[in-house]
């Protein structure tokens, strides 16, 4: 029987070069976009700007999905009633849609804030360790400088910040004393 093609011998360089070309085209697109809005072309790799772009790209679904679900649950008759009572679009958003979607905003803040404190690999791969997040500072204190006291203190501060965000974004119950 004749053997089929051995895929282990297939040269992967063409696929890799196509991937690099696609990446260079997307970098050119981002630079063209930055020039269009007046910022000008920027080096994108190993910069704070690249870290912010990629972190935003990663975290945006975690914010948008809870907000979308909260807005989707709003009864359309509430918006129509607001319009019937003479509210314009901004007043409808401010007085009806936003207050009724606050549960989604709170959930989105919690879903984005906590994971964004420890974007270890993102700071290494995209920002080239030029961006220091609280998580990478803790890691450096433990592993690089071996200053365990400072690393532990920063870890406790991180935990307290997470508790504060959870407390601020908690759902408040109306009419229940002591809660």
Overview of this protein structure:
The chain has 179 residues and is mostly helical. It has two domains: 15-44; 45-168, Orthogonal Bundle (MetI-like fold). The protein has helices at 13-36, 48-72, 76-84, 89-100, 102-116, 120-125, 134-144, 148-168. It is flat and about 65 Å long. It starts with 12 loop residues before the first helix and ends in an 11-residue tail after the last helix. Residues 4-14 and 16-21 have low confidence and may be disordered. Residues 1-169 form the ABC transmembrane type-1 domain. This is ABC transmembrane type-1 domain-containing protein.
Kindly summarize this structure in a few lines:
This protein has helices at residues 13-36, 48-72, 76-84, 89-100, 102-116, 120-125, 134-144, 148-168.
Q: What pattern of helices and strands is seen along the backbone?
A: HHHHHHHH
Structural class: mainly alpha
Give the radius of gyration. 24 Å
Tally of structural domains: 2
Q: Could you tell me the mean pLDDT?
A: 79
Q: What's the helix count?
A: 8
CATH superfamily placement of the largest domain: MetI-like
Beta strand %: under 5%
Query: Low-confidence segments, ≥5 residues, pLDDT <50?
Result: 4-14, 16-21
Strand segment count: 0
Report the span from N to C terminus. 77 Å
Tell me about the biggest sheet?
none
CATH topology of the largest domain: MetI-like fold
The residue fraction in helices comes out at: 55-70%
How does CATH name the architecture of the largest domain? Answer: Orthogonal Bundle
CATH class of the largest domain, anyone? Answer: Mainly Alpha
Specify the overall morphology. Answer: flat
């Amino acid at each position: 029987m004749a053997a089929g093609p051995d895929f282990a011998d297939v040269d992967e360089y063409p696929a890799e070069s196509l991937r690099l070309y696609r990446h260079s085209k997307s970098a050119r697109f981002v630079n063209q976009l930055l020039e269009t809005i007046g910022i000008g072309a920027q080096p994108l790799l190993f910069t704070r700007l690249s870290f912010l772009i990629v972190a935003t790209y990663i975290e945006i679904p975690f914010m948008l999905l809870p907000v979308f679900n909260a807005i989707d649950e709003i009864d359309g008759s509430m918006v129509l009633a607001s319009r019937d009572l003479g509210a314009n679009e901004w007043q409808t958003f401010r007085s009806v849609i936003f207050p009724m979607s606050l549960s989604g905003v709170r959930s989105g803040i919690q879903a984005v804030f906590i994971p964004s404190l420890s974007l270890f690999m993102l700071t290494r791969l995209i920002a080239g360790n030029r961006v220091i997040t609280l998580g990478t500072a803790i890691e450096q204190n433990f592993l690089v400088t071996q200053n365990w006291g400072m690393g532990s203190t920063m870890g406790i501060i991180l935990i307290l910040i997470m508790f504060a965000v959870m407390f601020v974004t908690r759902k408040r119950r109306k009419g229940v004393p002591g809660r």
